[in-house]
Amino acid sequence: MRINEYEKFEDFYYEYAYGKAFAWEDTNKRARYYGIEFRYNDKVYRLSNEPSFEEDGVSVRNGQIGDYKTYTIDRYLIDEWELIGSYKNLDEVLDNWIIEGKKFREVIMADETEILAKD
What we know:
By secondary structure, this protein is an alpha+beta fold. Strands 1, 2, 3, 4, 5 and 8 form a six-stranded antiparallel sheet that branches. A two-stranded antiparallel sheet has the order 6-7. β2 and β3 form a beta hairpin. The chain is globular, with a radius of gyration of 14 Å.
């Protein structure tokens, strides 16, 4: 039984690929998010697009300049996330974040992946 809310990869990608232009007709109807928390095989993970800092120390949060950080947590909602990776863009995350031997692009679309939160 499928519990994952994403039916098409494009739906996930649009929500999190900042700095990209999209041609999908319904783009103005969909929300854009900076972070997602999900459960895969009884472990909870987080992906977030976090601000980078320019040389003068100014925070940049326009979605085009930011790092995608990946986290895991042993017990959900304890707020003790462990940083496990940092990537320059979503495409890099999709192909290089390996979860239990699978690329993130496969995990985020797996039937058993449960989306817990979006922010």
